[in-house]
Amino acid sequence: MxxxxxxxxxDGLISRFNTVTLPSGTGVAHPNVTFTPDGTSPYVKLTVAxxxxxxxxxxxxxxxxxxxxxxxxxxxxxxxxxxxxxxVAQSIRDKFAFGTKWTYSAVEFRIVDEPMVQGDIVSGSYxxxxxxxxxx
Length: 136
Prior knowledge:
Blueprint: H1 5-17, E1 27-29, E2 43-50, E3 68-77, H2 83-95, E4 101-104, E5 107-110, E6 116-117, E7 121-123, E8 126-135
């Protein structure tokens, strides 16, 4: 179990992602957890990127406001079209809609801007559709 605020931030974002309903057989590549795609099954690759925190008060000495992006890349086998992958990207976007708030292990999260579903990128045996989720 995470004890530091930095670890709780990562766990809170991943915990929220884990409530997304994915199609049967769709794997999830969590940050720094061994995952080897088989080249034929869809999966979602997660990355937590942190930006410089904001100081909550001018005087300092208080916990800063952390912020960053959760990047969820929908990876779909090449040749299977992008319709189903786009549906998965949309369901991820919906779970993290602008204005969404939740608390995880006493840490409050807010989605501070509209998540963006990017265009598809063909990379090897997968087509990738990035979903960029800004959080604070």
